[in-house]
């Protein structure tokens, strides 16, 4: 038997009870504001709010490989070597100078003195070696490519010896001198150390908050307390908090910074996943800037008085060719015919953003070993038809994969790029059968397991190194282009390794040029299309932001006027 | 209760199988153009995605029974999916409650007045308005409100739950309530300003339905014998309205509000995306794009549970509103 009638006295009692609950709740809900709450006003630098497209994965850059994470950690940490703002060139950072032994296997780094981590502990040779040892000694989940992507890409294996490692040892010679020993010479060292993943972190803080306590649990990873809430570096900004409920990450100026101190009091990153919402937040003044505005918005942002900065392109978009599924594509003449058929000049002008350039080889001209005299493929449909006829494929049919639900700096608008190339190919008498799939919903899988015939893909350089481009594409014979069927695949892979292991700068440069010439004339495993510039936009209140071709901006010199 | 367990179980099987039958997956979403055959294989193994699907399901259930629902791979990588849900759920509840409140306080009086003055200008305006409310895509409405009020007029913020620069203490996860509890009045006001537009956009769905149901229901009740009797025995107009008409007309309205929970959640996916609202709707949208299986599983199952629970509450609330149901229970 139920009696749910609420009589008037009971109703009053209920209201009283609710009131009592509210009072007791508010009694235990004390404001946690510090004495300087609301800060910013009256002080020098002010606050900058920057719109981020996604949440950072964690704040330990060693376990990260995505731009959203690095944008934040780059302000907190520094590496042994850095990049001169506005360029892709190496400059001293926590190391002031470095010298290799004649064989290039031992490197002596002189460290900056008088530097402390945000937790007050000193930065010295011992701290540097502890970082290298930590990286090298990862095990379990920490040693998988999903977490230690950059270590595996650059140094290879770990101390377990399952894979050969570039790293041999780290010795603290004295307080401010470190000797790093490598197992072989590579031209990528020490430039590779400029990557955000190799930032030097406080050994004390890492130990205290169990930085290596990372687990693969079920179908994902769990990060350490250090990585979630206690990142400790030497950079111009200190980590304050990550308010996940509101999607904001707060950094504050490091007043103990050894160099030019940050001008801002606070630097806040606000997660706004939707592209249009980011633009509108900027227009309404809710944020002061955001990265990678869509090229479709460039004109209206400029008209609106925003400071749209177009970086130098440091990426490559190529038309991928998978030789496996279509015998015609195994013929060099057919691949060359595709190259002649595509009007890249018009494509770059009509479909790609301002500042984009036609790609003549597989990396941009700023990278070492760029050859000025590679074979070129100017737009020539007649020549394309002729080559197809010579190869015996007058009625060539190809399946052309293109992705939806994605925008990459090198590929801002896949649909228009696909459309333009498809038209060109058809004009040269080639029948195109389009296959479109969502990026994470089948496209990447199909390309990776060589299910496609033609496809669109590209790469953004991590640092100034030819190996970072062509080594990634063709460094092994097992690749997306399925070149293993070609007689030259082995030679190409060997040549790339040999160039990287060449100690002499001039000699190495010549080797890379030679590879680039062969790639374009004799191999043509894919067709380089374009280099597209990514942009970054800030409001007119923001000064001092230097756009980086590597999309690695530093906010230390940035200021805002109110 | 058994019903709830059954719903959750069937749903978990369906969601689990369906997500894994889609092309692509978390490995592609995580590695993208950086993946190689080797790293992809390694990640697939680390995530346990290479096992047969029923093995994956058993493992999921086994862990779920111990309270571990996996960790996010795409929405907020590395965060336990249940934590993510618990953190974002208040945001969506806050938004939904505000939307329902806006809808109730506008639609019920309007529906009542429209019914009492059937055919009048207010009635006609209300009907046309609710037609628009039902037929306008909520995505478009949200966009329009934001464009006019936030961007053109600059009256309210464009998105988010609170200004990034405000220093607010978190207690319950309901930002407006938190501000009131901790007496951080500026934080509460700021949260309220952020809440208004998304709630208004989301309110368009329940508003239209509640208005129409209220109107129809009041029209029905006004013709009932007991209303005529009440009137003929000379009761005051206010008493007739409150006790005889409104109370009886409210039953179908309450049912509707309960059934609208589902519509609210699907509306929240779009509204939260437009207004960068850190709720479960946004988590669903990002989760689908980035193939975040653990988050999608938890959010969809929990949302279904919430739906079942809300409708249970609605059933119980009948007893409070309708004396006849209480009487029936008494007799049983």
Automatic annotation (TrEMBL), chain A:
It comes from the Bacteria. Residues 1-29 form the signal peptide. The keyword Transport applies. One of its GO terms (cellular component) is ATP-binding cassette (ABC) transporter complex. One of its GO terms (biological process) is peptide transport. The keyword Nucleus does not apply. One of its GO terms (molecular function) is peptide transmembrane transporter activity. Residues 90-479 form the Solute-binding protein family domain. SUPFAM superfamilies: Periplasmic binding protein-like II. Keywords: Signal, Transport. PANTHER family: OLIGOPEPTIDE-BINDING PROTEIN APPA, PERIPLASMIC BINDING COMPONENT OF ABC TRANSPORTER. This is ABC transporter substrate-binding protein. It comes from Actinokineospora fastidiosa. The lineage of its organism: Bacteria, Bacillati, Actinomycetota, Actinomycetes, Pseudonocardiales.
């Amino acid at each position: 038997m139920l009696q749910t009638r609420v009589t008037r006295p009971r109703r009053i009692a209920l209201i009283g009870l609710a009131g009592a609950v509210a009072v007791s709740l508010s009694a235990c809900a004390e404001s946690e504001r510090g004495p300087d709450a609301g800060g910013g006003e009256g002080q020098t630098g002010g606050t900058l709010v920057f719109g981020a497209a996604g949440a950072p994965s964690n704040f330990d850059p060693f376990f990260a490989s995505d731009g959203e994470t690095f944008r934040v950690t780059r302000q907190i940490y520094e590496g042994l070597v850095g990049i001169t703002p506005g360029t892709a060139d190496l400059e001293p950072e926590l190391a002031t100078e470095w010298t290799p032994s004649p064989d290039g296997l031992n490197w002596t780094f002189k460290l900056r003195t008088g530097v402390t981590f945000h937790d007050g502990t000193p930065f010295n040779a011992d701290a540097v070696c502890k970082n290298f040892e930590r990286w090298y000694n990862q095990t379990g989940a920490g040693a998988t490519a999903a977490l230690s992507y950059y270590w595996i890409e650059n140094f290879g294996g770990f101390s377990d010896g399952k894979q050969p490692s570039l790293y041999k040892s780290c010795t603290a010679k004295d307080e401010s001198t470190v000797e790093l020993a490598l197992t072989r010479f590579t031209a990528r060292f020490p430039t590779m150390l400029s990557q955000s993943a190799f930032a030097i972190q406080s050994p004390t803080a890492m130990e205290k908050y169990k930085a290596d306590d990372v687990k693969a649990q079920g179908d994902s990873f769990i990060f350490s307390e250090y990585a979630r809430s206690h990142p400790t570096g030497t950079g111009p900004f200190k980590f304050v908090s990550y308010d996940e409920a509101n999607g904001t990450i707060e950094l504050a100026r490091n007043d103990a910074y050894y160099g030019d101190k940050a001008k801002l009091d606070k630097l806040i990153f606000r997660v706004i996943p939707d592209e249009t919402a980011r633009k509108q937040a900027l227009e309404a003044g809710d944020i002061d800037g955001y990265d990678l505005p869509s090229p479709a918005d460039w004109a209206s942002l400029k008209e609106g008085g925003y400071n749209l900065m177009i970086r130098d392109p440091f990426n490559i978009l190529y038309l991928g060719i998978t030789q496996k599924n279509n015998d015609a594509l195994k013929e060099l003449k057919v691949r060359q015919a595709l190259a002649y058929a595509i009007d890249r000049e018009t494509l770059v002008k009509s479909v790609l953003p301002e500042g984009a350039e036609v790609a003549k080889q597989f990396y941009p001209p700023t990278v070492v070993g760029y050859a000025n005299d590679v074979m070129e493929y100017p737009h020539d449909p007649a020549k394309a038809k002729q080559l197809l006829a010579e190869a015996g494929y007058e009625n060539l049919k190809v399946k052309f994969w293109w992705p939806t639900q994605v925008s990459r700096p090198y590929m801002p608008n896949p649909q228009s790029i696909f459309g333009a190339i498809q038209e060109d190919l058809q004009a040269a008498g080639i029948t195109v059968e389009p296959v479109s799939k969502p990026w994470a919903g089948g496209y990447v899988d199909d390309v990776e397991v060589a299910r496609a015939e033609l496809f669109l893909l590209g790469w953004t350089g991590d640092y100034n190194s030819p190996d970072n481009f062509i080594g990634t594409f063709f460094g092994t014979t097992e690749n997306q282009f399925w070149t293993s069927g070609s007689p030259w695949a082995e030679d190409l892979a060997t040549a790339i390794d040999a160039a990287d292991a060449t100690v002499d700068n001039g000699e190495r440069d010549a080797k890379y040029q030679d590879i680039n010439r062969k790639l374009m004339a004799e191999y043509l495993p894919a067709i380089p299309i374009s280099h597209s510039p990514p942009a970054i936009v800030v409001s007119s209140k923001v000064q001092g932001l230097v756009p980086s071709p590597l999309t690695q901006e530093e906010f230390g010199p940035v200021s805002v006027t109110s | 209760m058994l019903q709830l367990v059954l719903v959750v179980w069937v749903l978990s099987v369906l969601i689990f199988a369906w997500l894994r039958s889609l092309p692509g997956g978390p490995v592609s979403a995580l590695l993208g153009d950086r993946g190689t055959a080797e790293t992809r294989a390694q990640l697939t193994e680390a995530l346990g995605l290479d096992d047969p699907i029923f093995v994956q399901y058993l493992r999921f259930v086994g862990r779920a029974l111990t309270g571990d629902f996996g960790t996010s791979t795409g929405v907020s990588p590395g965060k336990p999916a249940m934590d993510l849900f618990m953190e974002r759920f208040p945001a969506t509840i806050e938004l939904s409650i505000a939307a329902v409140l806006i809808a109730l306080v506008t639609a019920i009086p309007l529906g009542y007045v429209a019914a009492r003055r059937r055919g009048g200008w207010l009635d006609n305006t209300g009907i046309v308005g609710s037609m628009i409310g039902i037929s306008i895509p909520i995505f478009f409405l949200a966009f329009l409100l934001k464009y006019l009020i936030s961007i053109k007029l600059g009256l309210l913020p464009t998105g988010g739950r609170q200004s990034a620069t405000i220093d607010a203490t978190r207690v319950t996860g309901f930002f407006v309530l938190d501000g009131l509890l901790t007496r951080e009045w500026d934080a509460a006001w700021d949260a309220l300003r952020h809440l208004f537009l998304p709630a208004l956009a989301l309110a368009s769905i329940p508003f239209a339905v509640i208005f129409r149901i209220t109107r129809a229901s009041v029209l029905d009740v006004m013709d009932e014998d007991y209303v005529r009797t009440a009137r003929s025995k000379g009761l005051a107009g206010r008493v007739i309205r409150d006790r005889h008409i409104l109370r009886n007309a409210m039953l179908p309205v309450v049912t509707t509000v309960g059934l609208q929970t589902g519509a609210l959640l699907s509306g929240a996916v779009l509204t939260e995306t437009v207004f960068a609202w850190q709720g479960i709707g946004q988590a669903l949208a990002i989760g689908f794009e980035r193939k975040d299986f653990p988050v999608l599983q938890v959010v969809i199952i929990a949302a279904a549970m919430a739906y079942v629970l809300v409708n249970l509450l609605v059933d119980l609330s009948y007893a409070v509103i309708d004396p006849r149901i209480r009487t029936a229970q008494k007799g049983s």
